[in-house]
Design brief:
- The structure is a single chain.
- This protein is α+β, with helices and mostly antiparallel strands and about 1150 residues long.
- The protein contains 41 helices and 37 strands.
- Helix 27 links the parallel strand 35 and strand 36 (about 825-830).
- Helix 3 packs across helix 12 (about 335-350), helix 23 packs parallel to helix 25 and helix 33 (about 955-980) runs antiparallel to helix 37.
- Pfam families: Cation_ATPase (PF13246), E1-E2_ATPase (PF00122), PhoLip_ATPase_C (PF16212), PhoLip_ATPase_N (PF16209).
């Protein structure tokens, strides 16, 4: 039971804060032991079972207001006498429910299939003294599991032993946290020797650990091993835990004991249902639905009231041809009123189309394939194409107002290259593998400061120049390079090594197959740099780390690793030198190391670090501390106590780490370059021209982040930079914000401002001064947030997202630390970079490079938005056209429920499903207002559709008004034609009720189809096929439906009606006149608006249409500073051949939102001007 409760997001009430796991399930024999109950090892990601699928799925579907509304309408049709058949509402509802259920059922079947594959995977478990193969779902807590190389761990295991003598193994956690580097995990010495099944069977040990929690990086426990009657207690931490989903690498096999299984494993506890994101279009659509529901209720209530007002006269209440029964005379007037109201509600309910939801879902699903098929979004080097994880947000790509981007791996390549360093106050740069003091070159004259010696591939010292033989002037340089090559968690992989062996066998003859694996690209770059300079890290074997210093091998004993964490922002190792001396090497951010340094060139190094940062380099500061024997004993004792504590272990470790990492001797600093990705500057500039503000959120230090912002074009050199950094208190932060606001207000209106804020100051600003902070931010063209924690990134996104303006936000990043902001933003985009796939898996869209963002927004976003905006408006328009004649008809039939339907029930059902559905679907898949190249070259066209402009209330009212106007013309145009007993047939026969309704319906189908044709700018063969094919299908269907007596139909009111209608020349004339009357004013409006008040998009359409003509007419028609009337005059001049070439200097007026630095295909070449 608690397994299901935990799966729903609640923790079961565990008996205690810890759990006790007996290895190999060897429980104590004494009687007071009470076994604990643990979850089995099944993973459940499916939503339904075969028993609850139908009720659960139906419940979820009818929670949608639209589905529930149509269900009510269907039930009303079943319960009372209504003018339309229940099939008219039931069939579309059944279709929608069935299609959705099949889709969701199929998706859940795939989840079941994946679960069964995982749960049924074969695993090997030690039981009864032998290795037994079983299924993954049968693993129990306490089982000893064997995992082989390249296999994934089937549960959370505490490592007991491996094929390596020291009991270590290497794993990758790409599927968990997105990190692709190799991580080393350790077993305790007492279990590391148990490398065979027999020895594991005889192992007497108990693991005590915390209850399951979701934090991947936290594990607190201890293992008690009984050897010869003596209990040995060892601490367990994250380095001892092998997480389910991680993969074993570079190790032949390991044995581990299962401590967390199934849905209690850390991977399962991190399953998170992403919050449902709703696009602005969907919100507008819901608003329109509410308005149309109001119209529906108004029409139903008005019709009911008018019916009773009309029947107040006795001659209409009970005419001679329709006498009431006694039961009808005695029935309740209130019930009759409700019944009549519901009948009219059913009659008019088609004004809210259920098919709108189906069409929108199909448009989003099918339209999403175009992103994956776009070759411009394909990255050839990595063989990666864009992918869509959420098709519900396609149109939101066309509404983005703020872009929040990570820096490392998103704007940059995340490929680190060592460039410079500072050693003992002297700045060096790497040139051809040698460290050269700043200002010197390889060709420095005699007597210059000597360079370091590079270690050659042959393992010998090489002298590059006769004057460049390096002999250390002091030991600081050597100590610095040794510190960099030893203070890390880098692992080495040898292609030919597959099991136990001597990891130092390559030391004497350096193997080209050796490859470094590091937890961060910075560490790898630094170790590779020291290798090029002669201090080479050879590898580690158990507690021994070996380096070669200019060909001389040295072995150090690794005593302790003080792991990196985000709060300390540094990591350290404690080593024993070959001489026996104990030394601490530390590296980290300058703010985390310099304050704890008491000796060395602190001031010079601080200056050098700032200089590195200004060049855009990532900086680390390196320091050391030497321990006396007594000092080390105290350090070792405190570390052991803190690491074996079961309560408050993290707090105690932080306290001990701070005790150790003090009184440091500063050695120097490093500067590593992270190259910008291709076309980052152009992409940011395009986004800015499109009216999108770009915020960079990074964990890098202030100076580095500012430098990269300048180099990528996020900040301009002429921009006024405002800073909110290093604030210590609320009052200080508030005063600085006020100063920044005054500075902005007193500056020139044309001055652009950029804001830099760090994480600490941001926390203060958001605590008490959120409104003031937002005011400063919104007045800045670009904002840079540095030293940001992952949750702070999400807070910043939420801050903008929930501001009064409610702007549409987009977050883009490549690492696990970007997931929170990607999920928080309206649209989340993952970069397929070098930091794994976690950002990609949690994103709505994924692209390979930042430069693809421009086309994704400016082209795909533009297309998706205009398509679905027109789709929604057109659907409401055509349903107003459809149902309003039905309402008008009531005034001519005394609101009678027996004959009050204008259309046949088959036409009612098929209008939205068949006759008018395909043209708008094809339109919504292929429509393009302008060519994609124009959209990319003119980013300002994006502004035409910003702020949901195509679904504004004004546009909505226009389409609604147009629908009512056309409906009135359909009805009264047909009524005028038929008049009072007008003879329209050659034989003198008159038309009847059904003929009149069919005439109205025919005119309506033709008009709404041609109206969409007028809206279409981009015609394909599919548009032609469905547009003219839909009209043809309607005529063919009507001829067959009314021309044959169908035996399965109850009544056939439409028999021969359509044939009779088409045989009348007057009817054909009426159809032609009514259609022209409806559409001609719309054509006139479009022509005049295009020439009198053209939008930027319409101008580009005009220019694009004339690109193939020798004289670029559009330039003559839109010259600089001319009003609309003169444009019409020039149009006449152009038609008469009097086009003045002097006017062809510029295609846009000063008022247009285009910029001179905009690269445009619309610029006239000299040849074109002279020809014109």
């Amino acid at each position: 039971m608690w397994l299901k409760v935990r799966y729903l997001g609640f923790d079961p009430p565990h008996q205690s804060d810890t759990r006790t796991v007996y290895i190999a399930n060897k429980f104590p024999q004494h009687g007071h032991y009470i076994p604990q109950r643990f979850a089995d090892n099944r993973i459940i990601s499916s939503k339904y079972t075969i028993w609850n699928f139908i009720p659960k799925n139906l419940f979820e579907q009818f929670r949608r207001i639209a589905n529930f509304y149509f269900l009510i309408i269907f039930l009303v049709q079943l319960m009372i006498d209504t003018p339309t058949s229940p099939i008219t509402s039931g069939l579309p509802l059944f279709f929608v429910i069935t299609v959705t259920a099949i889709k969701q059922g199929y998706e859940d079947w795939l989840r079941h299939k994946a679960d069964n594959e995982v749960n049924g995977a074969p695993v090997f478990v030690v039981r009864s003294g032998s290795l037994v193969q079983t299924r993954s779902k049968n693993i129990r807590v306490g089982d000893i599991v064997r995992v082989a190389k390249d296999e994934t761990f089937p549960a959370d295991l505490v490592l007991l032993s491996s094929d390596r003598a020291e009991g270590t193994c290497h794993i990758t956690t790409t599927s968990l946290d997105g990190e692709t580097n190799l991580k080393t995990h350790y077993s305790v010495p007492e279990t590391a020797v148990s490398q065979s099944v027999s020895r594991l069977e005889s192992l007497q040990a108990v693991v005590e650990c915390q209850q399951p929690e979701a934090d991947l990086y936290r594990f607190v426990g201890r293992i008690t091993v009984t050897q010869q009657g003596e209990e040995i207690v060892r601490p367990l931490g994250p380095e001892n835990l092998l997480l389910r989903g991680a993969r074993l690498k570079n190790t032949k096999e390991i044995f581990g004991v299962a401590v967390y299984t199934g849905m209690e494993s850390k991977m399962a506890l991190n399953y998170k249902c992403k919050s449902q994101k709703r696009s602005a279009v969907e919100k507008s659509m819901n608003t329109f639905l509410i308005i149309y529901l109001g119209i529906l209720l108004f029409e139903a209530i008005l019709s009911t009231i008018l019916k009773y007002a009309w029947q107040a006269e006795n001659k209409w209440d009970e005419p001679f041809y329709n006498q009431k029964t006694d039961q009808e005379r005695n029935s309740s007037q209130i019930l009759k009123f409700i019944s009549d109201f519901l009948a009219f509600l059913v009659l008019y309910n088609f004004i809210i189309p259920i098919s709108l939801y189906v069409t929108v879902e199909m448009q989003k699903f099918l339209g999403s394939f175009f992103i994956g098929w776009d070759l411009d979004l394909y990255h050839e080097e990595s063989d990666q194409k864009a992918q869509v994880n959420t098709s519900d947000l396609n149109e939101e790509l066309g509404q983005v107002e703020y872009v929040f981007t990570d820096k490392t791996g998103t704007l940059t390549e995340n490929e680190m290259q060592f460039r410079e360093c500072s050693i003992n106050g002297i700045k060096y740069q790497e040139i051809n593998g040698k460290l050269i003091p700043e200002g010197m070159t390889e060709d420095s004259p005699d007597g210059a400061v000597p360079c370091l010696v590079r270690f050659s591939s042959a393992g010998e010292d090489s002298v590059y120049k006769s004057k460049c033989v390096y002999t250390f002037q002091n030991k600081e340089e050597e100590l610095f390079l040794k510190a960099v090559s030893l203070c890390h968690t880098v692992q080495i992989s040898y292609d030919q090594v597959d099991g136990p062996g001597d990891p130092f066998s390559h030391a004497n003859g350096f193997s080209p197959q050796m490859e470094y694996y590091a937890s961060s690209p910075d560490e790898k770059a630094l170790v590779e740099a020291t290798k090029r300079m002669g201090v080479t890290f050879i590898g580690s074997h158990g507690e021994i780390m070996e380096i070669k210093t200019f060909g001389k091998a040295e072995k150090y004993k690794l005593l302790h690793v003080l792991e990196f964490d985000a709060d300390r922002r540094r990591m350290s190792v404690i080593l024993q030198k070959p001489s026996g001396e104990k030394v601490l090497f530390t590296k980290g951010a300058e703010s985390a190391v310099l304050p704890y340094s008491t000796s060395g060139e602190i001031d010079k190094t601080r200056v050098h670090v700032d200089e590195f940062a200004l060049k855009g380099l990532r900086t680390l500061v390196v320091a050391c501390r030497h321990f006396s024997a007594d000092e080390y004993q105290e350090v070792d004792r405190r570390l052991h106590e803190a690491r074996t504590a079961l309560q408050q272990r993290e707090e105690r470790l932080v306290e001990v780490f701070n005790f150790i990492e003090k009184d440091l001797e500063l050695l120097g600093a490093t500067g590593v370059e992270d190259k910008l990705q291709d076309k980052v500057q152009e992409t940011i500039e395009s986004l800015r021209l499109a009216g999108i503000k770009v915020w960079v959120l990074t964990g890098d230090k202030h100076e580095t982040a500012v430098s990269v912002s300048l180099s990528c074009g996020h900040f301009h050199r002429t921009m006024n930079i405002l800073e909110l950094v290093k604030q210590k208190s609320d009052s200080e932060c508030a005063e600085q914000l006020r100063r920044l606001a005054r500075r902005y207000n007193t500056s020139s209106h044309f001055t652009q401002h950029g804001l830099v804020v760090d994480g600490a100051s941001l926390s203060l600003a958001l605590r008490e001064h959120e409104k003031l902070f937002m005011e400063v931010c919104k007045n800045c063209s670009a904002v840079l947030c540095c030293r940001m924690a992952p949750l702070q990134k999400a807070k910043v996104v939420r801050l903008l997202k929930t501001s009064p303006e409610k702007p549409i936000t987009l977050a883009i990043g490549d690492g696990a630390n970007d997931v929170s902001m990607i999920q928080e933003a309206h649209v989340g985009i993952g970069i397929m970079g070098k930091e794994g796939r976690q950002a990609v898996r949690n994103s709505d869209y994924a692209i390979a490079r930042f430069k693809f963002l421009a086309k994704l927004l400016l082209v795909h976003g533009h297309f998706y938005y205009i398509r679905i905006a027109t789709l929604v408006q057109y659907f409401f328009y055509k349903n107003v056209c459809f149902i309003t004649p039905q309402f008008l008809y009531q005034f001519f039939c005394l609101f009678s429920q027996q004959v009050s339907t204008l259309y046949d029930s088959v036409y009612l059902t098929l209008y939205n499903i068949c006759f008018t559905s395909l043209p708008i679907l094809v339109y919504s898949l292929f429509e393009q207002l302008v060519h994609p190249h124009v959209l990319q070259s003119k980013p300002a066209l994006y502004r035409d559709i910003s702020k949901n402009s195509l679904l504004s209330f004004k546009t909505f009212l226009y389409w609604t008004f147009l629908g009512f106007c056309h409906a009135f013309i359909f009805f009264f145009g047909s009524y005028t034609l038929m008049g009072e007993d007008t003879t329209l047939m050659g034989n003198g026969q008159m038309f009847g009720n059904w003929t009149f309704g069919t005439l109205v319906f025919t005119v309506m189908v033709i008009t709404v189809t041609l109206k969409l044709a007028l809206e279409t700018h981009f015609w394909t063969w599919m548009n032609h096929f469905v547009t003219w094919g839909s009209i043809a299908f309607y005529f063919i269907f009507s001829l067959f439906y009314g021309g044959i007596i169908w035996p399965f139909l109850h009544t056939q009111d439409m028999y021969f009606i359509f044939v009779q209608l088409l045989s009348s020349g007057s009817a054909w004339f009426a159809i032609f006149i009514i259609v022209i009357t409806c559409l001609f004013p719309d054509v006139i409006k479009k022509v005049f608006y295009r020439h009198l008040q053209p939008t930027s998009t319409q101008k580009s359409q005009f220019i694009e249409a004339y690109q193939g003509i020798g004289c670029v007419d559009s330039m003559c028609c839109f010259s600089e500073g001319q009003n609309a009337c003169s444009r019409l005059g020039r149009l006449v001049e152009r038609m008469m051949g009097r086009c003045d070439p002097a006017r062809a200097t510029r295609s846009w007026s000063d008022s247009d939102t285009f910029f001179s630095n905009d690269r445009s295909i619309l610029t006239l070449s000299p040849m074109e001007v002279s020809h014109c």
